[in-house]
Structures
1.
Amino acid sequence: MVRMVFYKALITGASAGLGLEFARQLASAGTNLILVARRLERLEKLARELKQEFGVQVEVLSADLSRKEDLQKVAQKIKETPDLDLLINNAGFGGKGRFHEDQQGEAEKMIKVHVLTPVVLSRAALSGMLKNRRGAIINVASIAAFSPLSGAMYSSTKAFLVMFSENLQAELQDTGIKVQALCPGLTHTEFHEMAGINKEAIPGFLWMTAERVVSISLKALKRNKVIIIPGKRNKLIAFLMRCPMTYGLVRWAARQRWLRKKANL
Ligand SMILES: NC(=O)c1ccc[n+]([C@@H]2O[C@H](COP(=O)([O-])OP(=O)(O)OC[C@H]3O[C@@H](n4cnc5c(N)ncnc54)[C@H](OP(=O)(O)O)[C@@H]3O)[C@@H](O)[C@H]2O)c1
């Protein structure tokens, strides 16, 4: 399938994993980039590589999206970039423990990075996109949006992104703007190491590469479909978690102590 062509994209969480892969695949298609994350050295290194390899313009912006002033800085940058036609709300992280044991304010931080940031940045991007009658927003959610075994905050913030995307796309029909809720399953990135999850304990066949996930997401923008679940296995898992025939069984299994212990919950 032929991909949509974009002039300029802003990607949050571009210093690693899926965000970095979005940057690489978009640059290879000639898209100019604005890369956002906290680790500036990584962004600068990536920018140098992409400029050299693909001849695209790349700007970097260091921002901790859990901080109000940094989020406003990124929103302002978007408002000052009227030719931005792709926003990828990708920055995110996994929870480290149970909700009631959270002493570090992780829940609030997750709401700021997974929920508030995509809302504020989408709002900032839409005025330009509406004027130009073209553009796309990809909200990187997760199949955890449908799961009772992925952490109270992680699952619920990702579920927000799915419903936000679906309703926003409905509001924006006939405007030329596409909204996607990308729902990957287990993907090889730095995510699990950051969240203290032991990757070795998870069977290999359940994993996908960031390259494959990003490629599916970008190709799917051509289609009129909001929720994109990459990979047959992830589609099946998401189906089993939502299907009325298996819904109860999945919820029962998710309450079993041994399984919750294995999932670090
Ligand atoms: N990997 C998976 O299995 C998987 C599955 C489903 C969904 N996802 C989702 O995919 C997205 C990307 O994750 P990933 O797997 O690529 O993980 P990753 O390799 O750990 O990358 C996470 C990115 O988010 C950025 N980030 C985290 N907190 C931030 C903050 N406060 N401010 C600014 N940037 C921040 C990080 O940059 P800095 O640290 O430099 O700030 C990094 O660039 C996340 O939304 C995640 O929930 C991942």
2.
Amino acid sequence: MTTLCYAKATCSIGIHVLLEEIGKPYDLNVVDFSKGEQKTPEYKKLNPKGKVAALVRDDGSVLTEYAAIATWLAMTNPDKKLLPTDPEGIARVLEALDFVVGTVHMLSWRLWRRPDAYSANPDEKEQLQTRGKESMLAAFDIIDEQLAGKDFLVGDFSIADTALYYVEYWASDIAKWPLPPNVQAHFERMKSRPSVQASRQLEGVA
Ligand SMILES: N[C@@H](CCC(=O)N[C@@H](CS)C(=O)NCC(=O)O)C(=O)O
């Protein structure tokens, strides 16, 4: 059965939401970061990158990277309409998704959350974190404009919204930063979806 390797309070919750949206049976394999399980030889055999999310598919093959997993799930479950079918729609969803994963998560949040990954010098920690926070809040301002007058990033609900949801969750619930109004409204809209509620409950996210 399809198995999601996830860790609590990480980006893998966005993939978890997608599996709930699809509604087919799946298994969960928790990777406990507090015990460093992502770096164990057993887990690295499955995902040499030592990261979540990783999706083990029915044939045993493993897919990694948010955009790849999300796109594959959407395209193999076309009835769920998680990705438009026209070239412009596909491109716009991937554009929004890449901005969230590449810029908001990897270039901004990681700087705030893991300054030690960029400098071993404790004196630089605060400056690195400030840059990460500023960059993340600036990215949310751009997304806020994109969301003006809209419920979702591109047309109907899509894989891009699940990525936006996980960074909203981090910024709002973990960092306690205020979100701009349209982003906050999107976050509330996401939290009202049964798929989001189910994945939060299964992962024990308050
Ligand atoms: N580019 C990857 C990023 C995956 C990633 O960075 N995952 C984090 C959790 S949000 C992780 O597994 N970190 C492992 C660690 O911190 O040791 C993706 O799109 O899936």
